[in-house]
Description:
Structural class: alpha/beta
Shape: globular
Bound molecules: nicotinamide-adenine-dinucleotide, zinc ion
Largest sheet: 7 strands, mixed
Number of helices: 13
Strand content: 15-25%
Amino acid sequence: xxxxxxxxxxxxxxxxxxxxxxxxxxxxxxxxxxxxxxxxxxxxxxxxxxxxxxxxxxxxxxxxxxxxxxxxxxxxxxxxxxxxxxxxxxxxxxxxxxxxxxxxxxxxxxxxxxxxxxxxxxxxxxxxxxxxxxxxxxxxxxxxxxxxxxxxxxxxxxxxxxxxxxxxxxxxxxxxxxxxxxxxxxxxxxxxxxxxxxxxxxxxxxxxxxxxxxxxxxxxxxxxxxxxxxxxxxxxxxxxxxxxxxxxxxxxxxxxxxxxxxxxxxxxxxxxxxxxxxxxxxxxxxxxxxxxxxxxxxxxxxxxxxxxxxxxxxxxxxxxxxxxxxxxxxxxxxxxxxxxxxxxxxxxxxxxxxxxxxxxxxxxxxx
Length: 367
Ligand SMILES: NC(=O)c1ccc[n+]([C@@H]2O[C@H](COP(=O)([O-])OP(=O)(O)OC[C@H]3O[C@@H](n4cnc5c(N)ncnc54)[C@H](O)[C@@H]3O)[C@@H](O)[C@H]2O)c1
Ligand SMILES: [Zn+2]
């Protein structure tokens, strides 16, 4: 069943459509929104192999003219160099201000294409067709776009909202299991932030939805997108409440940086561990009961997500991790800001988290 979520942002409002077998019907949703029947699809090699022909056919059915640009698969594609190359390739197609870009892929493609759309001819429309679970529940929604610098991830970018998001649950069938689970960590994030009943729902349904029950999967994606849409609508540019979406991420980013943003630790895996560490920090600060933290750990263990840095590698440099915390772009005026919780579904922004407390958590979970 087609589900529609509206991201309410005034004149920048847009729909997120969630359903199975959506890609072959993409033209029905895209065509009415185009300023001209000219689009450029940006995708990666792996996604192109599976799905580019399906999107092409859907556009042809509506007589939409398209070109496609196929980028290399992987995070390295979000470099300044490949962004420059993408801009040149886009300009080669002689776009005008009415041209629309379509990002067909995971978060890497969505981020770089969205950023390209915000820069091309000072800004053109773009549409997100996310193909990973992470992109369907997180990166395609909310308008954060960007690329990486040697000084860190996502440091170059813009807020540029898409005009439409099409999340086709059926596309997840070809996604490697490990990527699916990593994306699932972001689903749990929404539950842990402000929806305890969603967490209960996930405890009951996660195993089935992660092994091919697309009806349940669609429901989880809709709940996640609704949660993100509400937070983004309340705080588009992260002046306040949107920071809650970083639950688990300050810990997670530090772990990712220390593993070189490599396949050793996927972003979602780092976030799963980070959420456990944030929950444990909250317990240590007597913000909530240890049994709530145990429930989170037990859920991740059942599903097959990691819950502690020590399960990734044995020799963490905890001083280096502390340095990352201090450098995290969410740190203000030297005070350490973390998203903590007062229990499942009760996350909040905590300023002044004690360094000694963090050292203790690191000592417990890294060794
Ligand atoms: N903009 C935001 O708000 C936001 C939020 C979270 C993450 N991100 C960014 O998202 C990126 C990570 O996104 P990701 O996890 O989707 O990674 P990704 O885009 O690299 O995709 C993961 C892998 O899955 C493959 N793939 C994609 N869809 C597939 C499918 N349906 N079938 C088979 N293979 C498929 C890709 O080719 C790739 O190898 C990071 O760069 C991160 O910074 C952005
Ligand atoms: Zn994330």
